[in-house]
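Exercise: predict the fold of this chain.
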Amino acid sequence: MDSSYRYAALSSQPSAAARAPHALNRLIPMRIHIATDHAGLEFSTQLQHHLAGQGHEVIDHGPLDYEPLDDYPAFCIRAAQAVVADQAAGVDALGVVFGGSGNGEQIAANKVRGIRAALVWSIATAELAREHNDANIIAIGARQHTFDEAASFIDRFVATPFSGEERHVRRIAQIAAFEDDGTLEPDPRAGTVRPDVLADDSSSFDPEAG
């Protein structure tokens, strides 16, 4: 089966969230799963109040108390599993994971099949994560931003629908296919003699080209 159809089958029809108008204050409440470790515990409390104030149902998968040596993987993986389960059940849901940098939290969440977690550090990356990648979890470095900055990234992420453009559906489908059974698109270099571009003075490489 073509990989784009596999992703389409996984995605089914666009959710109410995906059809929502692009607005900073989302009009359609949804379920948001959040997780952190000690590095984001204070941020987590603020964020839960912020999101609940916008009408979202917030489910916390993080620690109950501050423990400076706790480990983020299980917290983030449980949040990611909950997002996948909700979306499979037709519930409008997204996830937020955060720690000192957001890197480890993103890596942990992405180990869950069906998760597309994006590390976000600006309004633009928040929008692109949803529009181009259909990301269902946003990862934030809580020590890299003020609360207001991070909250603005999360708000934009939640408010932005997936574009549904064919090129993005196709690419996400290829990722899903590899995750499912290891399928990859054909290798254009397979069976060919690879030129030594470093030894070729006539190389047309242009470092200024886009």
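Check your answer against the key: The radius of gyration is 19 Å.
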